[in-house]
Amino acid sequence: MATDAATGTGLKFDPMGQFLVKPLFGGDMVNWYTPTNVTLWMVIAILGITAMLVLGTSRRAVIPTRSQSIGELAYGFVYKMVEDVTGKDGLRYFPYIMTLFMFVLFSNFLGLVPMAFTTTSHIAVTGVLALAVFLTVTILGFVKNGPAFLGMFWVTSAPLALRPVLALIEVISYFVRPVSHSIRLAGNMTAGHAVVKVFAAFAGLVALSPLAILGVVAMYGLEILVCFIQAYVFTILTCVYLKDALHPHH
Amino acid sequence: MATEATGAASGPGMPQLDFSTFGNQIFWLLITLVVIYFILSRIALPRIGAVLAERQGTITNDIAAAENLRAKAIEAEAAYNKALADARLEANRIIAEAKADIQADLDKAIAKADAQIAAKAAEGEKAIAEIRATALENVTEVAKDTAKEIVAAMGGKADARSVTAAVNARMKG
Question: How many domains does chain B have?
């Protein structure tokens, strides 16, 4: 093994292998209904969310146990975020936003488990989430405000001559939203995991292994931060878009 | 191993861009989201919301009860102070009464003693006056007798009336 490492044949760079979608029960075909590692880790996410928010609070104690405190903390965190950003009338959509937050948070953190598959590192997943938010918010904006929703793009506080230009910019930025919304999350997850994997591969070299392990530890710590921050950013941006739909006037 | 790495690199590249798996991922994602949404909106969120509301209610009630008790404590303190002041007033009144009683008794006793003293003094004076009167009488008597004897010894005739008159005159002088 030591000679392998010394000659460099122990090095195996495959940072992207961890993102492969594979069928759970053998075979090569990935049909839309095939249970894959995506299925497995999404189910684990569901179980985790259930454990935290349902089992943890099953005693409904006025003086909470530790597990109940965590559930209440998550609830209060998202509830306050929705209330602060979108206002009281945004609280109707709190369950949807809570669903998004819990899914993204658990997927991100479960991805940090060694050998795990990170569902939120795939643009297919984050893209669907972002598009769902985008479509919901756009439809909601028109339903709530009618054509007045288009006033969002017409900046009345700017000089008249500038308004068409600003409107163009606003429209473009509006349609870029789902793209940035989804790529930010998937990109952060993919990059972090790939870097950890690269560092881990270097651990095969005896001379470099202490440095590599240090790098893995440091990246892992950073990734823990990134996992939470990205879930938070994804959720708060959803709240901001929702606010725009409910109150399109700046 | 090296071939494997190059094989992976020349294969699908980023698995994220392998569109053949998109349908699968989106399908399972939608199922997952629906399941999470139902778990949250049917069970978890109403439960946690109820617990939080109940806690808020309990806290509010406790604060109200505490406020109530505080008011009662203040009331009790006021009542206590009032009772204390009343007791002090009562004590002062009793002391004043007792003082007055004692003063009256004292005055009466003093008056009685004074009267007794006065009576005794009068009695004494009367006795002294009596003694003085008898003494004076005796002196007069002795003077008359002596004068009569002296006159008789001188060989004169003692006239009782003139001797008495002379003695009386002398006594007055």
Answer: 1
Burial of residue A12, with CB atoms counted within 10 A of its CB: 0-12 exposed, 13-18 middle, 19 or more buried: middle
For A150-167, the pLDDT digits (tens) are 888 888 888 888 889 999
| Residue range B91-120, pLDDT digits in tens | 999 999 999 999 999 999 999 999 999 999
Distance, in Å, from the CA atom of A151 to the CA atom of A163, rounded to the nearest integer, reads: 11
Structure tokens at A193: 């995991």
ipTM associated with this complex: 0.87
CB spacing of A54 vs B44 below 8 angstroms: yes
The verdict on B28 touching A (C-beta cutoff 8 Å) is: yes
Q: How large a percentage of chain A has pLDDT more than 70? A: 95
User: B49 vs A45: CB contact, 8 Å cut-off?
Assistant: no
Amino acid (1-letter code) at residue A25: F
The two three-digit tokens of residue B21, written as one number:
């798996």
Alpha-carbon dihedral sign for residues A23, A27, A31, A34: negative
Helix, strand, coil in percent for chain B, rounding step 5: 95, 0, 5
Q: Which amino acid is at A54?
A: V
Residue B48 and residue A71 in contact, taking contact as beta carbons nearer than 8 Å: yes
Contact across the interface for A95 and B40, Cβ inside 8 Å:
yes
Helix H or strand E encompassing B15: none
Number of neighbours of residue A222 by Cβ within 10 angstroms: 13
Asked if the Cβ–Cβ distance from A34 to B24 is below 8 Å, we say yes
Nearest to B36 among A9, A94, A103 (CB): A103
Residues in chain A: 250
Whether B13 is in a domain gets the answer no
In the block, residue with structure tokens 């206002």: A87
* Domain interval for residue B145: 21-172
